[in-house]
Amino acid sequence: MTTPADGTPDLLGPDELAELAASVEWPDDWMRQATRERQATLAKPVGALGRLEDLSLWISAVQRASPPRPFARPRVVVFAGDHGVARSGVSAYPSEVTPLMVQAFLSGVAGVNALARLAGATVRVLDLSVDADLTGPGVPEDVTSHKVRRGSGSIDVEDAMTLEEASTALRAGMAIADEEVDSGADLLIAGDMGIGNTTPAAALVGTLTGANAAEVVGRGTGIDDRGWMRKCAAVRDAMRRGRPVLGDHVALLSRIGGADLAAMTGFLLQAAVRRTPVVLDGVISCACAVVAHDVAPRASLWWIAGSRSTEPAQKLALDRLALEPVVDMGLRLGEGTGALLALPLLQAAAATCAEMATLEELGGSH
Ligand SMILES: Cc1cc2ncn([C@H]3O[C@H](COP(=O)(O)O)[C@@H](O)[C@H]3O)c2cc1C
Ligand SMILES: O=C(O)c1cccnc1
């Protein structure tokens, strides 16, 4: 935690967040318009590339380039963290799976690794709040370089973390986005790993959209009806704890979020500040996106929805963000997999627009 010389905790205050929000620029509408005009001249019937054409306009606007370029350095950052609420029977799997999956990401054998290889993206995994000690031989130091705490509190009955830790986690996420953009990433994806994390995600979406627990709670890793009812009760209790601090984003994340989710929120915000596009993934990244959008409404113009999740909270989140997923394949994995599934379609949108001749260049007209 960063603490100023006088010893007071370095809280991320509303003024700093408002300043951050004000620094988010608009994507470039001139480039969007230039690409719209180009699409109308390419060697195809007008509109024949369907939604790829819409995607090419967004890519142009966020790249400030017309025609758009395929992304050269797409990067996934997986935010790993455990959640005390998992002890209340809200997940089909135990928290011990979280550190195992971190090892799997590092070994390159998880779903996110396979899809990243296919899509030409690289993967970085960070332990923000895994309830295990991941330092030691075989684990690169980078993995724990932004660790905030071991596990987050059980949000139905206690705070996920302190206000200081929430501030630290948000700042960590911003620093991570800076690190990635400074290292050359031109497209970012926020992946998640943490047993129980669909519970705080649902609670955040429910609190910010005004929906009730039954409307936001899904099956997560595959809980049965009794598990779903336990999860509804946990989310209802968490939302009761979150509602009084609606509007204070640091307090909201400290009460009913988690260090991993707070970091992801900071990451999404800073990506927008750095004019770097993001493909959102499943319910976790979309829940964080709703928090980040509440801080900085313009930030969502820098994001696109990769994949429809089966989690109901993701639908409410995307409605709030006015985003329509690129693919709908019934995914419910997270890790960044849904975003990676959409990435080849984004590349297709950029490549067709950049590489196709115009009808006029072929000697024709229409
Ligand atoms: C082996 C395994 C790999 C995963 N990869 C992502 N998740 C996903 O499922 C979890 C969230 O669902 P819930 O809230 O129901 O626990 C998170 O770890 C999320 O990343 C996984 C879950 C498991 C079991
Ligand atoms: O929507 C997701 O990404 C998701 C759904 C269930 C479990 N983990 C992640």
Automatic annotation (TrEMBL):
> Which Gene Ontology BP terms does the record give?
cobalamin biosynthetic process
Active site per the UniProt annotation: E335
Pathway assigned in UniProt: Nucleoside biosynthesis; alpha-ribazole biosynthesis; alpha-ribazole from 5,6-dimethylbenzimidazole: step 1/2
Question: Keyword set for this entry?
Answer: Cobalamin biosynthesis, Glycosyltransferase, Transferase
Spell out the Gene3D superfamilies in the cross-references: 1.10.1610.10, 3.40.50.10210
Instruction: State which Enzyme Commission number(s) the record gives.
Output: 2.4.2.21
Q: Which domain of life is it from?
A: Bacteria
Catalysed reactions listed for this entry: 5,6-dimethylbenzimidazole + nicotinate beta-D-ribonucleotide = alpha-ribazole 5'-phosphate + nicotinate + H(+)
MF GO annotations: nicotinate-nucleotide-dimethylbenzimidazole phosphoribosyltransferase activity
The top EC class is transferase
InterPro entries given in the database record: Nict_dMeBzImd_PRibTrfase, Nict_dMeBzImd_PRibTrfase_bact, Nict_dMeBzImd_PRibTrfase_N, Nict_dMeBzImd_PRibTrfase_sf
Query: What family is this?
Result: Belongs to the CobT family.
Cited function: Catalyzes the synthesis of alpha-ribazole-5'-phosphate from nicotinate mononucleotide (NAMN) and 5,6-dimethylbenzimidazole (DMB).
Return the NCBIfam families for the record.
cobT_DBIPRT (TIGR03160), PRK00105.1 (NF000996)
Identification of the protein by name: Nicotinate-nucleotide--dimethylbenzimidazole phosphoribosyltransferase
Species lineage, top-down?
A: Bacteria, Bacillati, Actinomycetota, Actinomycetes, Motilibacterales
